[in-house]
Amino acid sequence: MIAAEIAEMARTLLIVLALVLVSGACRTIEPDPITLERNLLTVDNHSSQDWKGVEIWVNTYYRVTKDVVPAKSRFQAPLDTFVAGYGQRFDYRRAMIKDLRLTATLPDGQPFELKKQFDSSIGLAGALGGKR
Q1: Could you tell me the pLDDT band of residue 121, with boundaries at 50, 70 and 90?
Q2: Does residue 78 lie within any of the structural domains?
Q3: 91, 80 Cβ separation under 8 angstroms
Q4: In what order do the strands lie in the sheet with 51-58?
């Protein structure tokens, strides 16, 4: 009798575990619309609207422009294509990226802005608890 109850509990536990695993596998995680990987910046337009007059700014000095990033598409640009007002190129090997933002115009004329959120716990300031 006890063995049958243990077997029934084990079977129930396996079913619950299988349901949890299957439900977790079905979930899709949307990637960040702005990602950085080494020298490559990727912008993913997951929306159903085109972004027009796109400007991407690094550290408020360096920028890249793109006429249109169509809906449901991706735009990639190497970081050394970002240029400042006087022609200096961004050197990703020497400079730290502290600010990254995208500005554009939606088809209805509304302004659109995305700002990359950086993890403040990375680096020496994060390891030591930030500024004091």
Answers
A1: low
A2: yes
A3: yes
A4: 62-69, 51-58, 100-105, 111-115
Q: Which residue has the tokens 């004091």?
A: 132
Q: What Å distances lie between residue 48 and 45, 70, 71, 72, 106, CA to CA?
A: 8, 9, 5, 6, 10
Residue 74 within any structural domain of the chain: yes
- Identify the domain containing residue 104 by its residue range: 34-126
**E strand residue ranges, the chain:** 34-37, 40-45, 51-58, 62-69, 73-78, 100-105, 111-115
Q: What is the pLDDT of residue 31?
A: 74
Asked if residue 13 belongs to a domain, the reply is: no
Torsion of CA 45, 50, 51, 53, to 10 degrees: 140
User: Any idea what the CATH number is for the domain that residue 90 is in?
Assistant: 2.60.40.2890
The number of folded domains in the chain is 1
* pLDDT tens column, 28-63: 677 788 988 889 999 999 999 999 999 999 998 999
